[in-house]
Each structure stands twice: as structure tokens, then as C-alpha cells.
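User: Let's play a game. I give you a shape written as C-alpha cells, and you guess the letters that built it. Ready? Here's round one.
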């Protein structure tokens, strides 16, 4: 939408115009599981939005809105040459990222087997996405199949820009009160123009049953051999089930494991560049990950050993307070005005209330040693159900995975 040019500007002119009149304008997507208060959400409950984010000085509000409308409604999706270039750039970028930052892709692949939002996220930006990009590139380069791909892209845009009936366009504004008040008429005109656009068409695309597709893909131990001498080892599963309440203390314990036990065992002793873990309060998923790791089986063994470490832990008050302070620093770090605005929007979309966030802060501040031990017991149970996803060297799968039967798959 932002790199192919529009009906009135070619790609270079559009980029220069955006840079001249705004502080940046970009289009992406937002996919998330819906929140469920203090409890873990329904794994099949998902929402998705196309997002356009932009910022400008007060004198340029009209221009920024005009650019947003132009990009959304008149982007040249028939620009075949630019489509081929973008697909080639995306393919090369993904291939480099999988080899250089495989832990991110291992994390996404691991989560995709447990929640619908993560399943869709994997299709739109994970290992599966690379296969899709390759297929689209082949279509774009073929004279016979390019028209079908162009029609598909235009159909997606038409479906997204349909604002009739129960279809809604949501606008989130971040500014001081004076600017919010003075720009209201400009925003109202923009809304009217978008509602009256002739591109939107509710019948442009057919609905797809993503939930049924996700159920067809079972969780399994997966291995992806790539040309590298190191490994990215992911391991985890659903620690808290749908409907279960999860305390904010889980975040303290995850932070403690990452900066203590995993740092010592996976990085210092094991030789990896990084070892860490994390828990998602919305989905209840818990994941261990390593970065540029010379080991495979030994790292999984260390992940499993974390459960007994926590179940039998003894902490001083000073150690406990340090873990709590570190966690609070992570969740309440400073943010810029545009970050505050977008965070507010995403929390509103998924249904995370201020009271939920405050409850989690209170639980973090009230973390006890007993919380660590109870978490360890949960991890002990998870050990028998957790799955591994490893992106690494082919030799590692032959020599260092004796206890795990990986389903090996080629990705590059």
C-alpha cells in the first residue's frame, strides 16, 4: 500500500511526499487473542485489523489524512514490477532472519499450535509465510498467473475498506486536548470520505474457517535444518488453560528464570548467546528460547530442570525484591506519545481494562516465595506435555537430539 505508488504519485514521489509532510506513515496488521479479564482467554477467540499509523505536526493534519486516504484507496496494486521487487525483498529478508534470528520464528511456530491468533500470525509472518511469499513470487513472475494474484490483492483491499453494515473503521487519536478539539471537523470529513469510498465491497472475499484449519495441525516436536552452525531451541506449551486465573507473579518468576537460572545454565555454562523464557498472560502460553546455541538436547534438559529448581527454591527477601523491581521496570517502561496512543488502542481492542492491568501490578508487587514453588510444580506437569521447535544445523539433529523425535521439515 505504501511502496507501490498511487494513482497520483509513483513510488518515489509518494515516499518523498510522506517524508516531507509527516513524521512517518506505515501500514501493518494487528492480530491478537481476546483478553478475558484475570483469566486466560479462549484460544479460538481472535481479532484482526489492518492498521495505518501516522504522525504529524498540527499544521499538517489535513495533509496527513489526505495521504492516508490516498494510500488506502488508490494504491497501485496493479504495479507488477514493484510487486515482484517487494516479494523478492521479503523473501530474502525472511531467509536471512530465519538463519540469524531463528528464536523469533521458533517462538511463533511453537505458539501457533495452541491459539488461533498465533496460528494466523504464523501464516502471516512466520515460517509458513516464507512458503506463501515464494508461491506469490512465482505467480507474480508468470504472465498467466499474475492477473489472479492482482485480483486477490484487490479483493483483500475491497473487503478491508468496506465500512457498511457491521463493518467498522476505528480511529484512535493521540494529541493534546486543544489539538483534538480543533481537528475534529477534519477528522469528521475524513470519516465521511472513507465511508463513501467506492473501493470497499463486502462480497469481495469469501470467509475462511481458520479455527477448523488450526485444529487440523497438531502440536508436535518440529525441527527445521538451516545452513548455520548454531541452534535456536524453543520449548513450551500451555501452562494455564482457558478460563484459569493467572497471577501477575508468573511474570516475576519468568523474569527471574531468564536472568538467573537460564543465564547461568544456557548461556554461561552452555555457551549460547542467550537463554530466556516468557509467559503470555492472555493465552497462558509459556516458552523457553535460546539464541545462537551450540547445544540442542542439553538445552532442552536445562529447560526441564528449571521446574525442579523453582519447586525447591529458597529466596532471600533481597533477591525477591530485586526480581519484583525488574519486572515492574519492564511493564512500566517510558513510552513516547505515539506508543502510548497505540498501546491504548490495542488494549481497548483486545478488551484489557485498566483495572486488569492494576490487578496484575498488585499481584507482581505481592509475589512470594511460595508463588515460585507453585509455578515450579506447574512446570513439572508441563514437562511431559511441552513441545520443542528447533531451528538449527542439520548436524545437531543427527548428533544431539537423542531423546526427542523431531519431525524434520525444510524451510529454506
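Assistant: Ready! My guess for every position:
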Amino acid at each position: 500500500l505504501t511502496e507501490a505508488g498511487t494513482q497520483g504519485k509513483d513510488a518515489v514521489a509518494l515516499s518523498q511526499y510522506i517524508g516531507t509532510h509527516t513524521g512517518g506513515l506505515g501500514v501493518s496488521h494487528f492480530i491478537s487473542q481476546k483478553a478475558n479479564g484475570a483469566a486466560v482467554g479462549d484460544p479460538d477467540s481472535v481479532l484482526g485489523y489492518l492498521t495505518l499509523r501516522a504522525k504529524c505536526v498540527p499544521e499538517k493534519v489535513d495533509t496527513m489524512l489526505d495521504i492516508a486516504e490516498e494510500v488506502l484507496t488508490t494504491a497501485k496494486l496493479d504495479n507488477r514490477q514493484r510487486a515482484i521487487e517487494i516479494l523478492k525483498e521479503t523473501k530474502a529478508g525472511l531467509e536471512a532472519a530465519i538463519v540469524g534470528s531463528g528464536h523469533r520464528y521458533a517462538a511463533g511456530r511453537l505458539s501457533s499450535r495452541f491459539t488461533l491468533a498465533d496460528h494466523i500470525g504464523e501464516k502471516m509472518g512466520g515460517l509458513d509465510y516464507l512458503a506463501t511469499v515464494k508461491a506469490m513470487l512465482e505467480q507474480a513472475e508468470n504472465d498467466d498467473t499474475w492477473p489472479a494474484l492482482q485480483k486477490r490483492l484487490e479483493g483483500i483491499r475491497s473487503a478491508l475498506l468496506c465500512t457498511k453494515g457491521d463493518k467498522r473503521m476505528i480511529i484512535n487519536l493521540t494529541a493534546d486536548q486543544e489539538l483534538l478539539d480543533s481537528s475534529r471537523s477534519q477528522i469528521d470529513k475524513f470519516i465521511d470520505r472513507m465511508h463513501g469510498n467506492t473501493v470497499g465491497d463486502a462480497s469481495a472475499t469469501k470467509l475462511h474457517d481458520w479455527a477448523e484449519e488450526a485444529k487440523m495441525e497438531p502440536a508436535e516436536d518440529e525441527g527445521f535444518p538451516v545452513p548455520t552452525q548454531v541452534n535456536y531451541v524453543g520449548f513450551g506449551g500451555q501452562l494455564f488453560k482457558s478460563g484459569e486465573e493467572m497471577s501477575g507473579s508468573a511474570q516475576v518468576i519468568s523474569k527471574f528464570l531468564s536472568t538467573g537460572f537460564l543465564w547461568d545454565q544456557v548461556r554461561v555454562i552452555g555457551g549460547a548467546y542467550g537463554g530466556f523464557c516468557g509467559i503470555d498472560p492472555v493465552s497462558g502460553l509459556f516458552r523457553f528460547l535460546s539464541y545462537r546455541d551450540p547445544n540442542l538436547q542439553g538445552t532442552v534438559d536445562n529447560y526441564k530442570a528449571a521446574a525442579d529448581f523453582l519447586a525447591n527454591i529458597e529466596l532471600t527477601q533481597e533477591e525477591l525484591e530485586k526480581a519484583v523491581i525488574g519486572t515492574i521496570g519492564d511493564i512500566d517502561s517510558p513510552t513516547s506519545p505515539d506508543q502510548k496512543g497505540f498501546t491504548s488502542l490495542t488494549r481497548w481492542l483486545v478488551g484489557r481494562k485498566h483495572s486488569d492491568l492494576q490487578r496484575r501490578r498488585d499481584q507482581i508487587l505481592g509475589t512470594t516465595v511460595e508463588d515460585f514453588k507453585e509455578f515450579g510444580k506447574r512446570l513439572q506437569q508441563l514437562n511431559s506435555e511441552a513441545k520443542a521447535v528447533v531451528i538449527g544445523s542439520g548436524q545437531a539433529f543427527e548428533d544431539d537430539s537423542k531423546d526427542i523425535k523431531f519431525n524434520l521439515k525444510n524451510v529454506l
